[in-house]
Inverse folding.
């Protein structure tokens, strides 16, 4: 069975492919996918048992075949030259740093290939060297991806016109075409397999339960969850003021017992539509106690598409409706 996170890698890509993605979306999805592979491989290398040679071989194929030979060339052969033509400085500027970091990552990958080859060949004593080489390689690229996502790409978007965006997209297609008609899909599938093999933990598992609960209770939105059998299983802000009062007595109750009789049939109709896959969201808003309240229902599904239940969000949007103009982060910092 394919893991939840492994499926998310492919589904996130497929959602983006349903509409024509921008060059920024393509490159940032490459980054996002690669960082998932980093997390999965790091977990495999640090596990209680040595990693399988298959996951080491798969990771090496992804890093060499996609990151180095494909992704980097999308940028170096097409994005960077065009950005330079349009005024982004190369020597002593951001492009020089990006190219320098590509070279550094290639050198780190060469060391990683050496240790990976030894490990795959049966030398278990190569594992410490493999771990160290991977830590160096992934550290360089994580920092590099951040610089591109947050600095270089926005800089390029500000100066690119539609024709420039089209030029970069055509260049990306040309680079991917060197390796086959389905290059991106193939390597994203490989990434999903690496994630699946490693049984990578979901990010929420990195948080203690009390911290996760505190996060949910801090949100400016109240949450309730009704399971696939239409029974209430969770609500947030238990010990906080709530727009619609709720106590622990609601837990385990059928959802129709938690709504006024005149609205029960509408709630049941929405839930049935969620179960049938006919819709994924329902929303409404009302005036309540002098506030404008926004209520949304979301169908919650597993990575395999199985209906798990309904998430209800309740938010007082009165302060949001009153917002005018702009207040940027720098303004907030100066006000402190």
């Amino acid at each position: 069975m394919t893991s939840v996170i492994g499926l998310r890698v492919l589904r996130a890509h497929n959602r983006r492919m349903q509409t024509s993605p921008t060059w920024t979306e393509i490159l940032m999805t490459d980054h996002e996918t690669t960082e998932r592979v980093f997390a999965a491989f790091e977990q495999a290398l640090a596990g209680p048992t040595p990693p399988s040679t298959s996951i080491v071989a798969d990771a090496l194929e992804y890093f060499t075949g996609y990151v180095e030979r494909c992704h980097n060339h999308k940028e170096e052969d097409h994005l960077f030259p065009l950005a330079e033509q349009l005024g982004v400085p190369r020597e002593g500027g951001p492009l020089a740093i990006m190219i320098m970091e590509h070279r550094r990552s290639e050198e780190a990958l060469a060391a990683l290939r050496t240790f990976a080859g030894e490990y795959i060949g049966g030398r278990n004593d190569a594992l410490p060297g493999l771990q160290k080489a991977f830590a160096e390689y992934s550290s360089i690229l994580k920092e590099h991806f951040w610089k591109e996502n947050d600095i270089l790409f926005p800089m390029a978007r500000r100066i690119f016109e539609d024709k420039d965006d089209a030029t970069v997209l055509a260049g990306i297609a040309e680079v991917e075409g060197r390796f086959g008609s389905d290059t991106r899909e193939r390597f994203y599938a490989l990434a999903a397999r690496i994630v699946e093999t490693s049984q990578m933990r979901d990010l929420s598992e990195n948080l203690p339960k009390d911290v996760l609960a505190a996060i949910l209770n801090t949100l400016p939105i109240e949450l309730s969850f009704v399971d696939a059998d239409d029974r209430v299983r969770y609500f947030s802000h238990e010990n906080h003021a709530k727009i619609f009062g709720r106590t622990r007595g609601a837990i385990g109750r059928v959802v129709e017992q938690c709504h006024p009789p005149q609205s029960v049939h509408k709630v049941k109709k929405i839930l049935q539509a969620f179960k049938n896959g006919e819709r994924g969201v329902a929303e409404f808003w009302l005036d309540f106690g002098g506030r404008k309240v926004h209520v949304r229902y979301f169908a919650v599904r597993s990575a395999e598409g199985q209906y798990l239940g309904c998430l209800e969000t309740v938010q007082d949007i009165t302060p949001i409706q009153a917002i005018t103009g702009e207040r940027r982060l720098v303004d907030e910092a100066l006000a402190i």
